[in-house]
TrEMBL record:
Protein name in the entry: Peptidase MA-like domain-containing protein
Species of provenance: marine metagenome
Length: 288
């Protein structure tokens, strides 16, 4: 299976680097990917996502930084294909949602509180623009995460929303509801969930600096952040067997994009942070 951990680069490439975006709130429409709570999502994303077809509920993380949206019915139900009880503690909240909340908050604590990165831009501060474009801002200032069946080949993505001009944009995250077809056990799925939450949250943080940064650096530094938050997971090892650019094909550019190279290129920020200091990665982003 051709598994793509993250589809954020494709979204940015299609809707930003191609020049197809650039709309403002006054235009009255949104050609960029919109949230699963907005009708017609599949038509705007080229298949990147879809609108929920069953009633949606949400769970606010206890620490208060995230609102996680999901449905209790249909193919989008959290953990639907994991083959284990979806609510093992019988508290009314699916285990997948509670783990998402836990992992996102851990990622926020590491990246923003401990390492000093900016928080993701708040969507609710642009509520008037969202409303005028017929979009959903999630109802408050918590960062919105949507759980749904993204597809067997994708773990998740972060969608920037150009409700204002400029390169600093609010966004939302979509995470697959069980990683079915990619991970066969609950522990494997939860490890991928850890890596994916850290990765996608860092994309949202990147959009507090420059949404138009080079794709290779967006992905390399997002994989690097996985290592800062969940050092024991080492999901990026899965890419190294396909990565030969620094090892045997030195003519390949650091910014090569082939669906693998830009992720396995995490060796570059790992080298920088180990040779100098992890703060060098934040310094690079502050100069973006």
């Amino acid at each position: 299976m051709d598994f793509r951990r993250c589809l954020t680069a494709e979204i940015i490439q299609s809707f930003y680097h191609s020049g197809n975006l650039g709309v403002t709130a006054e235009s009255g429409n949104a050609p960029f990917p919109t949230r699963p709570t907005v009708p017609g999502e599949a038509g705007r994303t080229g298949g990147f996502g879809h609108t929920y077809t069953t009633p949606v509920v949400y769970y606010d993380s206890p620490e208060g930084h995230f609102r996680i949206w999901y449905t209790n019915n249909g193919a989008d139900r959290p953990g639907v294909n994991l083959g284990v009880p979806s609510d093992s503690d019988n508290n009314g909240i699916p285990d997948w949602i509670e783990r998402c909340s836990e992992y996102f908050e851990q990622s926020y604590q590491t990246a923003v509180v401990s390492m000093g990165y900016r928080s993701p831009p708040e969507d609710f501060s642009f509520s008037a623009q969202y409303t005028s474009m017929g979009l959903d801002h999630g109802g408050d200032g918590r960062y919105d995460v949507y759980i749904q069946d993204v597809g067997a080949s994708i773990a998740g993505y972060t969608g920037p929303e150009q409700v204002v001009e400029g390169r600093i944009l609010p966004s939302y995250i979509v995470i697959d509801n069980d990683f079915s077809g990619v991970k066969n056990t609950v522990p494997e799925a939860l490890e991928l969930l850890q890596a994916t939450t850290a990765h996608e949250l860092f994309h949202a943080i990147q959009f507090a600096y420059d949404v138009n940064e080079d794709i290779y650096w967006l992905e390399q530094s997002a994989v690097w952040m996985e290592e800062q938050v969940f050092d024991d997971v080492n999901d990026h090892y899965n890419y190294l067997s396909t990565f030969t650019g620094f090892l045997s094909e030195s003519w390949l550019s650091l910014d090569t994009r082939n669906g693998q190279h830009e992720f396995a290129g995490v060796l570059w920020p790992l080298y920088l942070s180990e040779k100098y200091d992890p703060g060098i990665i934040r310094s690079i982003w502050e100069l973006a």
